[in-house]
Amino acid sequence: MHEANSQLENLRQDLGDLRDQVEEGLRSLASQSSTALRALEHLRSERDDSQRERDMLRESLKDKEKVEQGLREKLAREASASTQAHENLGQAKVATLEKQLKDKVAENAALQEEIERLEAIAERAEVDAARQASLAAMRGSADSNADLVHLRSQ
Fold first, then answer.
1. Alpha-carbon span 111 to 118, nearest angstrom
2. Distance CA 59, CA 151 (A)
3. Separation of alpha carbons 40 and 135, rounded Å
4. The dihedral of CA 21, 24, 30, 31: what is its sign?
5. pTM of the model
């Protein structure tokens, strides 16, 4: 019986050691599980942060695409307006030059008419002056003749 008691005691001791090992294993497993859970929570948090960041980047990209599209449309409108303004300016310059040319032609025509009118007046004045000179010469001749007649009669 002694031997059975001794065996029983050894078994109890082995069982105690086994319990201690199991408890140590459970504590280690609990610690590892806790560490794994914390790591898992950290990874979930990082995943959520990454997802939020991706969502924000997508929204930002959409906003940038909208802004880019708006800028492209504005540039197209401004380019069209600039082209139209350039064409209008060219047409305005041509119209201004045409008007200036027409004004100069009209001014030259008016000056030509004035020259012709003045030449006609000058020609009439020359004819009148020649007539007057001729009349004066005739009068002078008649007066001279009258003076001669008068002198002879004296």
1. 10
2. 131
3. 137
4. negative
5. 0.40
SS3 154: coil
Q: How far apart are CA 7 and CA 21, in angstroms?
A: 20
For residue 14, what are its two tokens? 């082995």
What's the Rg (C-alpha) of the chain?
Answer: 64
Token pair for 52 = 């939020």
Integer Cα distance of 106 and 98 in angstroms: 12
What span, in angstroms and rounded, lies between the C-alpha atoms of 27 and 114?
A: 125
User: In residues, how long is the chain?
Assistant: 154
Separation between Cα atoms, residue 97 and residue 89, nearest integer Å: 12
Q: What is the pLDDT of residues 104-120, one digit of tens each?
A: 999 999 999 999 999 99
pLDDT of residue 63: 92
Q: Give burial (CB, 10 Å; 0-12/13-18/19+) of 109.
A: exposed
